[in-house]
Amino acid sequence: MAGRCPRCGVGKVFESDNPYNIVKMITTKKECSNCHLDFIPEIGFYWGATYVAYMITVAFSAITFGISTLIFGFMNTLSLWYVLVNGILLFLFCPIFFRFSRMLWLWVAHD
Ligand SMILES: [Zn+2]
Hints:
With 111 residues, the chain is mainly alpha-helical. It has three helices and no strands. The longest helix is centred in the C-terminal third of the chain and has 30 residues, at 80-109. The mean pLDDT is 94. Bound molecules: zinc ion (ZN). Zinc ion binds next to loops.
């Protein structure tokens, strides 16, 4: 994922390019290195990104539910197995969803 500045498209928003870098996966830079856009305009700015992450999680689960229903049938999808597998997938994709929701929030909410 690019994770570039929403204004100039050059500066990087996150410290590390790798979303699975455990130490720096959530470290967001204070400002753009190119155009000096403030990436943290106010305290709690990224609180709104949690709602974006929630919507992504629900949408992802709806898609996996649909795929599981197509392959295994509706009644088999209503099982603990689906919950378990979907939970593992959500856990694995968590760093990507985290960054995507922060980027989306930065694009939408930054003035
Ligand atoms: Zn910039």
